[in-house]
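Title: Prediction job returns without error message
Component: structure pipeline
Severity: low
Priority: P3
Assignee: unassigned

Description:
Job completed but the reporter wants confirmation the result is attached to the right record. Sequence as submitted:
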Amino acid sequence: MIKSCESSPLFGNALINIQRVVIAPPSALAYLEALINNLPLGTLYCNRCQHPHLDLGDFARNPHKKHFCGNCGVDSNWSKTPIVSSPLNELAHKLTKNSNFVESDGSLDLRDYPDCQIKVWSSTPAVLWTGDLAQGNGYPCPHLPRKKKILDNTFGKVTGFDGSHLERDKLLAIMLDKCKKPKGDK
């Protein structure tokens, strides 16, 4: 949850005074998918109630000009160009300290750990990044045992148990797809 203070409203629209925002998983997922797929993002405000518009589902995957307000129901909101509208886009631009990404230069060969159960996933951009350092891009691998040392790092290149190289984009697509499925469906 994000809370505003009187001197710094959350949104730039002076006609509304939203003092707190709860970032629910569907809105975070829709925003991340649009961000990762380089879709044009924006924040459109309803011309009747002035609330920021949120695109979800297929609407978040397909930029469009006509937007239906989920707050008051008006269906005559138009953006100048096709966009995916998300209030998170405006919050990210306002609150993110460092929007840069750094590609990890480390490499990991999983064949070096034949008896280990290893979890590897693709890093995703943070919805809001309040750290001063750039975000890392790669494959986070937590608590990887290497003899007496523990490796806990993000790697830019990972070789699988079969000798093939993991493809970050494919792994990321699988991860996002799994987020959309109800618990128990695999």
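Comment from assignee: result matches the submitted record. The chain has four helices and eleven strands.
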